[in-house]
Design a protein that fits this description.
Oligomer: heterodimer
Shape of chain B: globular
Strand content of chain A: over 45%
Low-confidence stretches of chain A: none
Order of helices and strands of chain A: EEEEEEEEEEE
Shape of chain A: globular
Number of strands of chain A: 11
Number of strands of chain B: 12
Radius of gyration of chain B: 14 Å
Low-confidence stretches of chain B: none
Chain lengths: 117, 115
C-alpha cells in the first residue's frame, strides 16, 4: 500500500492569488498524478508527474496555470496559479504501486479542498 | 474515447436492503475496471477491481462483474449497513501495472444507509 499526505487539507483563497499543494508519499514511486474534483463532478486528471522530467498535462490543463514540481521520488507539488472561483475544487494526489500480478493499484491522498472567493 | 457513465444519486436505503449502482463504460481497448469508495472525511480507496471480461471483483460484501457484452460493471451488495454510507466511483483504465494511473471516473453516487 501507500500512505499519501497532502497539505493543506483545505484553504480559502482570494481571487488572483496562487496556492501550492504538497504531496508526500511514504515510499518511492515513479509516477505521481494530480486529479481535480470539481463540485458535483467526476475526477479529472490534470497531469502526470515523473521524477526528473517535465510533467505531462492533459487536454485543457496548462503548465502556466498548474505548474508541478517533482524533486524526488516521494514528493510533488501542484500550484494553482492566479486563482478564480472556477478553480474551487478538491485536488487529489495519487500514486500507482505495482503489485505481484502487475495489475497495479492507484492510491489517493485525502485531497486538498480549495475555495476561491 | 474512454468514458464512464454512472447511476445518478443520491441513493437512500434502509439497513439490510439490496444495493445496485449501475456503471457502463466506453473504451477503445480492453480496460481494467474499478470501484472506488470515499467515506466521509476520507480519501478515495479502492473497493474492488476486475481486469478482464467475466472477472468478478469482490470485497467487503460488494461485488461487480466485468461484462464486455453490455460494457457494464454494476456494483452490488446483498445487505447494506449504515457503515457503507459513502460516495462510490466507477472508473476505468487502459493501463496495466506501472502504466496504470490514467483513470477515467464516473461522477460518483452518494449512498446513504439508514438504520
Amino acid at each position: 500500500s501507500a500512505v499519501i499526505s497532502q497539505k493543506p487539507s483545505r484553504d480559502i483563497c482570494q481571487r488572483g492569488t496562487s496556492l501550492t499543494i504538497q504531496c508526500q508519499v511514504d515510499s518511492q514511486v515513479t509516477m505521481m498524478f494530480w486529479y481535480r474534483q470539481q463540485p458535483g463532478q467526476s475526477l479529472t486528471l490534470i497531469a502526470t508527474a515523473n521524477q526528473g522530467s517535465e510533467a505531462t498535462y492533459e487536454s485543457g490543463f496548462v503548465i502556466d496555470k498548474f505548474p508541478i514540481s517533482r524533486p524526488n521520488l516521494t514528493f510533488s507539488t501542484l500550484t494553482v496559479s492566479n486563482m478564480s472561483p472556477e478553480d474551487s475544487s478538491i485536488y487529489l494526489c495519487s500514486v500507482v504501486k505495482a503489485n505481484p500480478t502487475n495489475t497495479g493499484e492507484l492510491f489517493f491522498g485525502e485531497g486538498s479542498r480549495l475555495t476561491v472567493l | 474515447g474512454n468514458s464512464v457513465t454512472q447511476m445518478e444519486g443520491p441513493v437512500t436505503l434502509s439497513e439490510e436492503a439490496f444495493l445496485t449502482i449501475n456503471c457502463t463504460y466506453t473504451a477503445t481497448g480492453y480496460p481494467s475496471l474499478f470501484w472506488y469508495v470515499q467515506y466521509p472525511g476520507e480519501g478515495l480507496q479502492l473497493l474492488l477491481k476486475a481486469t478482464k471480461a467475466d472477472d468478478k471483483g469482490s470485497n467487503k460484501g460488494f461485488e461487480a462483474t466485468y461484462r464486455k457484452e453490455t460494457t457494464s460493471f454494476h456494483l452490488e451488495k446483498g445487505s447494506v449497513q449504515v457503515s457503507d454510507s459513502a460516495v462510490y466511483f466507477c472508473a476505468l483504465s487502459e493501463g496495466r501495472g506501472s502504466t496504470l494511473g490514467r483513470l477515467y471516473f464516473g461522477r460518483g453516487t452518494q449512498l446513504t444507509v439508514w438504520p
